[in-house]
Fold this sequence. Notes:
By secondary structure, this protein is an alpha/beta fold. 47% of the residues lie in helices and 13% in strands.
Amino acid sequence: MIANEDLKSRALGLLARFYGYRSFRPGQYDIIESVCSGRDALVLMPTGGGKSICYQMPALLAERGCAVVVSPLIALMQDQTQALVANGIPAAAIHSNQPESYNRQILNAAFAGRLKMLYISPERLLAEIENWSRLDISLFAIDEAHCISQWGHDFRPDYTGLARLKELRPGVPVIALTATADRLTRDDIARQLGLHQPFTYISSFDRPNISLRAYNNPGARDRVRFIAALARKYPTDSGVAYCLSRSGVDSLHKSLLAAGVRSVRYHAGMDAAARSESMKAFLDGTAQVVCATIAFGMGIDKSNIRWVVHNNLPSNIESYYQEIGRAGRDGLPAEAVLFHSVADIIARRNFAQESGRQAINMEKLERMRAYAEARVCRRRILLSYFSESTDCDCGNCDVCLEPPERFDATVATQKAISAVARTGWTNIGVFTLVNILRGADRADIRAAGYDRIKTFGAGRDMSVREWNDYIQQMIQLGVFEIAYDDGNHLRVTDFGMKILRGEAHLTLSRYSAAAANEKKKPEPARTAVDETAARGLFEHLKTVRAAIAKREGRPPYIIFSDSSLLDMAIRRPNDEFEFLSVSGVGEYKARRYGPEFLRAIAAFHQ
Ligand code: ADP
Ligand code: ZN
C-alpha cells in the first residue's frame, strides 16, 4: 500500500501529464483515494461534473491490472475510449459494432496487461467474465449506475445481473457512478450492486452557468423562430431540440431547414446508418442543430452545446436535468428552454398510465409539470428536487430575471390551511379545497358537510383561477405536500403549521389573468457568451481545431474542448512549455498539437 501523500502527488502528476489539469475538482481526489484503498464507492455528480476521472485515475494509479468499465451504450464507450487514447492512455472497448476478431485482440491485450481500461456492456461482461480468470482486474466501474434500479428513470434489466460481480470477484472494489438519483434510487443502487459500506459522494447538482426558461404553449411558428434565433446567436456552437415523438422530430426538423437552420434528425425510427450520419454531422459541426427524441445524447461529451430546447414537457425532472446538462459542459454561459402545453401533460399521463409503474411515474410527471408552471425560482425547484437546500434565488432563470409582482399571502394561506384542517387534515385535494374556500354550492360539498365548516366561503374575494394558482405556489413553496400514496390529498407540512400559527410569512406571485392568457413571445436571453478581448483569437483557434479534426477524422472536441481553446486564447502561450499550462493540455496533446496551435497564435498576433 502506498502512503497517501505519495498517492496524492502521483495522482496530481498523472492528472497534469495525461489530462492537462492542475487540480482535482471537489470530491474527485477523496473518491480516488478511497477506491485506491480498495473500498467501494457511490458517486453522484451532475452531467459534466467530472465523474470519469474518479474511476480513470484509480485505474491509472493501480500498479497492475485493468479496470473494467460497464457502460450501457456503444456510442458512450467509443466516446470515452477515443478521448482516453487521444490523451495517450491505453484503453479500448469491446462491443458488437466491431469485428469479433478485433474484440478478441482487445481482450488478449487486456490479459497481457497492456490495457489500463476496458469498456464493455453489462450483458457481454456477464456472459464472459467467468472465462476471465487470467484477467487481473483493478476495479469495476459501473457508469450510469441508476440503470440498475427500478426506481430510476432508465431501468435496464441487463444491469441487474451486475450483482454477481461482487460474488465473482469479492476483493475488487466497485465504483458506481450516476448523474441522476434521488435518495430511493441511490440506496437501491448500493443494495443491488452489493456495495460494502461504500464511500458515498454526492456533489452539488447546481449548474449555475445554464440559464433556465419555460414558456407555456408558444405557437409552432414562434417555436421555430426561437430556435432559429438561438442558432444565429451562437453561430459557431450547437444546440439540441428534444421532441416527444418521432413525428415531432420530423416536423420540427423540416421547419428549421425551411428557416435556414442547419438541422439534422435523430430518433429510433431511423436506421442505424442514418442515425450515425446525423450524429457525425452534429459532432463535427456540419450540422448546427439536432432535433431528437431522448434516444439521443447519453454520454455525448460535446463541450460546445450552448443550448437545449425541449419542444415538449419531459416525463420527469431527472431526465430533464440530465438532458439540459448536456449544454454548457465547458462552464461557459448556456441556455435551457422548455416549451410545454396541456397536450404534453395528457400525452405523458397516458404513457405513465401504461408504464406498469404508474404511481411513481405519475408523481414524477406531476413534479415536472410544477416546474414548468412555476412562478418561483426554477433553480430552487430543481435543487430541492435533488434534496439540496438553497435559501436564495438564482438570478439566472426567467422567474428571477422577470419577477412577477409579489404580495404577502400569509392570510390567504392561513385560510387554506385551516380549511384543510377542518376537513380532517388529509381528506381533500386541491379541487375540493378551492370549492370550500369559494363557498361553492355543490352537492358533493354539502354531502360531506363541508358547507358547515367555519372556513366555508372564507375566500370568496378571490376567483377560482386565483385560488388554483396560489395553491399551486403554496405546494411549490412547501406549505402543502401532495400525498401521492393517498388519493392525492393535501397534507400540511411543518412549514405550513408555522404559517398557521403566525410564526412564518408567505409571499406569493400575484396572479394576473393577462399573464396567464397572453402568450408571451419567447425571446432568447440577450446575454451572449463573454465578449473578451480573446474572442477573436478564440474563434480563430476553433478553425485551426476544425482543420485538425477534419484531417484526423475525429470530432473537434476530442482534440481540445472549447474551454481549453478559450484558456489558450487568454494565455497566448509562446512556447511548448507555456502551452502545457493551458487547461486541458496534457503532455501527449502538447506534443501532438502544440506546434500547430503555437504557430497559429503567433501568426494571429502579427
Ligand atoms: P461526467 O462524466 O460527470 O458527465 P466528465 O467526466 O465527462 O463528466 O467531465 C466533464 C468535463 O470536465 C470533461 O471535459 C473533463 O475533462 C472535465 N474535467 C474533469 N475533471 C476535471 C478537473 N479536475 N479539472 C478540469 N477539468 C476537469
Ligand atoms: Zn432563479
